[in-house]
What does this fold into?
Amino acid sequence: MAERGILAVVSGFAGSGKGTIMQELLSRYDNYALSISATTRAPRAGEEHGRHYFFVSTEEFERMIREDALLEHARYVSNYYGTPKAYVEEKLSEGKDVILEIEAQGALLVREKYPDAVLLFVMPPDVNELYHRLKTRGTETEEVIRKRMARAAEEAELIVKYDYLVINDDLDECVARVRTILQASHERTGRQAERLNTIKEQFKLFLKEEK
Amino acid sequence: MAERGILAVVSGFAGSGKGTIMQELLSRYDNYALSISATTRAPRAGEEHGRHYFFVSTEEFERMIREDALLEHARYVSNYYGTPKAYVEEKLSEGKDVILEIEAQGALLVREKYPDAVLLFVMPPDVNELYHRLKTRGTETEEVIRKRMARAAEEAELIVKYDYLVINDDLDECVARVRTILQASHERTGRQAERLNTIKEQFKLFLKEEK
It folds into this structure.
């Protein structure tokens, strides 16, 4: 049986580059799986069911809530978004490290259910750089960018609750840092309760035989 | 100014191979420093002052205790052993990761003074392997080996207080795992309070200007 994977939650400001980092991680290594969210909103052009999202009806989503089938969920405007538990559990037991790319409120909910989850926050080296990145995307109006900056300022208050703060100054270095953090997380004592019990039993047996 | 180093505390049963792992780490990379203990016991053949230990008088050692110049200390039989703070602080501010190779009681005392310290426990894959390693050293009587095993069984109760449990099955892999853990520790949010404050200040300024 494969060693159970790590549950890693990755958050970051819009414009932090976290999406690109996760894509790189998934394309370079085969021990990671990206969790796919469920949503009640309609698919946009090019979005595929089971790849970008699980697109479900409101009835279906509310049934998942009732049956505790979601790791976390939230409602934005009139749509639900959430993380289906089954997919995450399946990948974890296959030994994959599962990455959840969700925002801070959801991240903290996940930690309540999975105390061993590793929480990473990704951000650019400074605030001006963040503004610059949003600006050069060229897809949003100045007003939308200002709203995103105000939201980022709010999110910044929650970073202290994350285990790791990863600065995205250089893509390759950042991917390497995230990988290092996930690798180290496998050795945490909290994940090795079973092994510890085995060791204690072995000592008991050994010392008994010795008498 | 160099980023402050990590304080890493490494413990392990006698026979765990932790000494060899630390030597390898120090010889392969130049960003580590090994803390040198102070002791009141007499030097053994081949031991050098300032390399293996700082050999000091009992008066000197007790003065260090009074002046809070030790990170931790303990008395075994009639001798004192302790970790001088000045050397550790000097290396940390040079940006070196400082490794303290001490036993569990001392490790937990260090954590009280340095909450950001990273605690690693190294052990062989299982208890029989531990016995086997002590046995094949050939330097100790069966009685001494049995005492060490009994002591190891006691220490095993404290492993749960460590951050990481590293299995020493293969030297190279184990060195790599320890290095990964130390590298990841640099990104911990708890170490980046200053950066977080800067970011929050930058957001405040930015949002003020935007109004």
